[in-house]
UniProtKB/TrEMBL annotation:
This is RNA-binding protein. One of its GO terms (molecular function) is RNA binding. Keywords: RNA-binding. InterPro entries: Nucleotide-bd_a/b_plait_sf, RBD_domain_sf, RRM2_NsCP33-like, RRM_dom, SLIRP/GR-RBP-like. Residues 77-96 are annotated as: Disordered. Residues 3-81 form the RRM domain. Coiled coil: none annotated.
Length: 96
């Protein structure tokens, strides 16, 4: 069964292909998704990698979490389903 990983700290110029190449070293990659800002079209610096199995996912975490990738330190862990995230806390104030 595939496992989805959260990848934080991505360099903003990282492409899907570069990320896939890096994670293929740990096992079969099912999909890659780098999150993009909808207004600027620029990377938001994080994304998701879906590994084909648990073994590949664990190997990818061991291989990349806390390690440097293109000059930035990555955070790699198992992605949490949307329902498990804490609710967003709004201060009611807007930044200018």
């Amino acid at each position: 069964m595939s496992k989805r990983l959260y990848i934080g700290g991505l360099p903003y110029k990282t492409t899907d292909e570069e990320l896939k190449e890096a994670f293929l070293k740990a096992g079969e990659v099912v999909s890659i998704s780098i999150m993009m800002d909808k207004f600027t079209g620029r990377s938001r610096g994080f994304g998701f990698v879906e590994m084909a199995d648990d073994e590949g996912a664990e190997k990818a975490i061991d291989m990349w979490n806390g390690k440097e990738f293109a000059g930035r330190t990555l955070v790699v862990n198992e992605a949490k389903p949307l329902g498990e995230r804490p609710p967003h806390q709004s201060t009611g104030q807007f930044r200018r």
